[in-house]
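Bench notes, bay 3.
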Amino acid sequence: MANEPIIEAQGLTKRFPDQQKKTAKKKSVEAVSDLTFQVARGELVAFLGPNGAGKSTSLRMLTTLIPPTSGTARVVGHDILSRPADVRARIGYVGQLTSGSFSQRARDELLSQGAFYGMSKAASKARADELIESLDLSGFANRAVQQLSGGQKRRLDVALGLMHAPPLIFLDEPSTGLDPQSRANLWQHILDLRQKYGTTVFLTTHYLEEADRYAERVMVMDKGRVIADDTATALKANLAGDVLTFGFASKADAAAAVAVIQRLTDREVRLTEDGTVSLTAPDGDALLPTAVRALDAAGIQVARATGVPPTLDDVFLALTGRTLREAGEGEPTEEEDSTGQGDGPDEKNRDAADAASGSAELAAEKTGARR
């Protein structure tokens, strides 16, 4: 149905055995807890959080790569537990690692992906040509994957995820490791494809500026739980606010200014030791000139006044008492939680193998082929 949410998660929870415990009865680590949300068709949703927050584990459950411990979800109209093949047939998934075979040409990788999804040779060729043009792959389509740059490989990964024209694509940290120019280029292609095909995009990221700039909706995750869910603008306005700072010629003027400004807002107005007055408030761009006029009317001359808009890091700080960077430092990743070995090559290769086996399994069901 057109109005049906494309993702409906209900109580998704994932626990892993704690491999670091040496006791006979091992305790479990809860990587994701009671994940409940909906995503409408056509949305661009960003999962934002530090390493180890549960973002990638959530995507793996939604894409049927790992089963939840409890709870379930419907993705593109199908249950992830009872109809996993139907889910896989209707989604694209781009993991954190390059999914292409290093020895194959980029174009051949796309054709192979089409075969995995039961597409005819003619349909695969037409779709590959379309994606090569849309994602600007023509300059290296006939080169081996191992010869491509990091940005080129990520664009190829996105093309592979879109090869069977899914209405929903999951992107797990799509721009991690790319230089700023390659990141901007990749994002422009993602936005262009979304506008052209109406694809729903669900991605994870720890890049604050990406979620702030591109996502229509931001879900903030910490320690396995979603702690905020709204547009970036609303989150910043309601949970953080603009930082307003006023400077004065004397500490006496600064002290007198506190009472004047406090009458204009219910937010706390602070006087610092250096004689600066500051506060954090929503709609700071409107409050700033109002405060300057009120101070002038009270005979208090403002030497300087600045307003700094909030960031999503300010939102995370307001929610958790620590910045996103602080939260990610020294905390185990989701893989460390489950294996005690960190996000190493074995774990990442297992993800790639899971994704590959999912495609092959689906192809086998549709065509009788074996990878």
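Next record in the batch:
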Amino acid sequence: MPVDTLPLSADAPAAGAIDTQRLRQAASSAVAALKLLGNEDRLLLLCQLSQSECCVGDLESLLGIRQPTLSQQLAVLRADGVVQTRRDGKKIFYRIADPAILEILAVLYRLYCPEEQTS
């Protein structure tokens, strides 16, 4: 969140002072999200899932992540409530459940995955 839009404290000592308690809580949430994204496999998984829901087999072939690693990382994302699942027969499909993660991924994509320029 840009500094100019951070919520101000009701009892702030100076005009424009930041409510440090609310800022600390927000920082804690941001750190948790960044830790999740700090693993290359999880980041790749989330980038793929930001495009559409996928089953494990599709994720494995699209990303080249071996099944044991894939299952482990999906379990971490599921435990943190970042992804949700739905079952269709024998297949389990994953999708991103946290809109904040989608916003972070969009910024990361814009910064680190610029579209190729054609001459």
